[in-house]
Structure formats: structure tokens, C-alpha cells
Amino acid sequence: MTYIENVFLCMASPLLIAALCMGKRQRKFFLFCFAGMGVCLLSAYINTFFAALYKADTFAATTEIAPVVEEVMKLLPLLFYLLIFEPKREQIKNTAVVIALSFATFENVCYLIQNGAGHFSFIFFRGIGTGAMHVICGAIVGGGLAYVWQRTWLKIAGTCGL
After folding, report:
1. Residue whose C-alpha is closest to residue 8's, from 109, 126, 131
2. C-alpha angle 104-47-7 in degrees, rounded to nearest 5
3. Are 154 and 123 in contact (CB under 8 A)?
4. What is the pTM of this model?
5. How far is Cα 116 from Cα 159, in angstroms, rounded to an integer?
6. pLDDT (tens digit, 9 = 90+) per residue, 96-112?
7. Which residues contact 38 (CB under 8 A, 6 or more apart)?
8. Vertex 107: Cα angle to 49 and 142 (nearest 5)
9. How many other CB atoms sit within 10 Å of the CB of residue 56?
10. Residues with Cβ < 8 Å from 121, sequence gap 6 or more?
11. What is the CB-side half-sphere exposure of residue 117 using CA atoms within 13 A?
């Protein structure tokens, strides 16, 4: 196991214990936290694979490969939720934001471990920027999916468009 899996286990363990202590209504929240962190972990592997496959330099990997992979990966647990549980409109938006928030949190923690926290201003703006970007993208996709999944004829085209 590399460090990223260890970080995942350290973050997921307290959440798992909290999920077991909370009532049934709050368990979905923790499930989506695990899903967001899990797809972040999986995104790291997929990003590395595509970067090696296309022999991309660091700049190309972070500007061309990572955004596409990360947004698609954040969409997968949300699509699973939509297909299996058929949630209400407001639940879709909240779920998308929780997945995006936990994705951003796990990504920031891994970044801090890998690069250190020597410059507070850089870390502060990265934390705010990454968190805001992931949450806003999650809210947009969640709101869009909440809209298109209420209309049968828009489900496939709307989901692909988002």
C-alpha cells in the first residue's frame, strides 16, 4: 500500500465509526463521503494511467487529463444513486455536493501530505480554490441532473451533456 491508501484508511475509519453510531437517516451522508473520497482515490490512479499512456508532462496532465477524469468520476456515484434509489430532486443536489466536498477534502489532504504546508497563503488559496471548484461543479451537475431526471426524454442526453 502506498501513502494515499493509508490516508484514505485514516480518514475513512472515523467516518465509518461515526456512521455506525448515527441513526439510519444520516448513514447516506457518510456513504456519499466514502464514495467521494473513494472516487478521488480511483481518479488518482486513472489520471496516472492516462498521463503515462499519452506521455503527458505535468502541465498537460493537470490541465487536460485530470479535470475530465475527476468530473466523470464524481458523476459515477451520483448516477448509481439516481439509478438505484430514485431520489427526490433536493436529495440529488445535496448528494452531489457531499460527493464533491469529500472529493475536494481528500484531494487537499493528499496534496498537503505530498507537498507540505510551508507557505500558508498558497495552501489557503489552494484549499479555497479546490474546494470551491469541486463544490460548485458538483452543485451545477447535481442541479442539472435534478432537472433532467424529472423528464424521461431528457435523461440520457441531459446526463451526457452535463
Report:
1. 109
2. 50
3. no
4. 0.88
5. 38
6. 999 999 999 999 888 88
7. 8, 77
8. 95
9. 17
10. none
11. 10
